[in-house]
Amino acid sequence: MSSDRLFPDQWSPSLRATAHAWAQLVAPLSCAGCGAPDISPCPTCCVTLLRSVPRVVHHPLHVPVIAATAYAGPARRLVLMHKDRGRTSLATPLGAALGAAVRSVVARVDSAVPAVQLVPVPSRRMNLVRRGRSTVAELAQAACRELGNGSTVESVLRVGQPLRDQVGLNADQRQRNLAGAFAASRPDHQAAPSKVPVVVVDDIVTTGATVAEAVRALEAGGYWVLGVAAVCGPRRR
Ligand SMILES: [Zn+2]
Predict the structure, then answer these.
(1) CATH number listed for the domain at residues 47-233
(2) Residue 68 near residue 100, CB atoms below 8 Å
(3) Ligand 1 centroid from CA 214, angstroms
(4) Distance from Cα 142 to the centre of ligand 1, integer Å
């Protein structure tokens, strides 16, 4: 049985099963994390992802940055398959891991906070066009479902200037590339940023330069930023 939503919901179970069998002949389905056949992600990869303990990523920011797991092994492959290969069904397990990281941020700062607004780090315009979707916003929506406490997604960050690709830049160069890159707008339905605290969310945090710019822009826009949560952080050394 496949957990990938390959076929329309209105198809009958037998039609879906037949179509699945045909699809398997053409392009065998395998776990995006470990390559196990027939199901993606496989239960082992889901359990590994969900059992990982969120940890603080070291960075020079004044708010906590917490990643659900390290950018390695099955977690890394699941993130990449979701991001670049259009495996949208992976948003559910990855979003659950992100939700755990969000919970950890809230617990560290002020555990009395009932609900938060998750603000996705915006994608470069080129990536949005290429992928046709905001993959971080998808993860944020799934994280809200996992949190189940009335938390919402507010995509209030915009890219204010064209960004160079960050790949190959060191931490200092990234920081200079990103200075002033983001701007925070007000939520569509509100006159001013509400008093609900926000948590910046991203799929992968490496040097922390991107999330630092996101925090700067939100605070400049009057938002109360509790911290940053990501699915993957740097590998442990
Ligand atoms: Zn697997």
Answers:
(1) 3.40.50
(2) yes
(3) 33
(4) 20
Query: So what's the pLDDT on residue 201?
Result: 98
Cα-to-centroid distance, 44 and ligand 1 (Å): 6
Q: How far is the CA of 4 from the centre of ligand 1 (A)?
A: 13
Q: Separation of 87 CA from ligand 1 center, angstroms? A: 14
In the chain, domain spans: 47-233
Those residues of the chain that have pLDDT short of 70 are 1-7, 16-17, 19-28, 161-164, 187-194, 237
The confidence score (pLDDT) of residue 106 equals 96
CA atoms within 13 A on the CB side of 120: 21
Looking at residue 26, its pLDDT comes to 59
User: 218 CA to middle of ligand 1, Å?
Assistant: 37
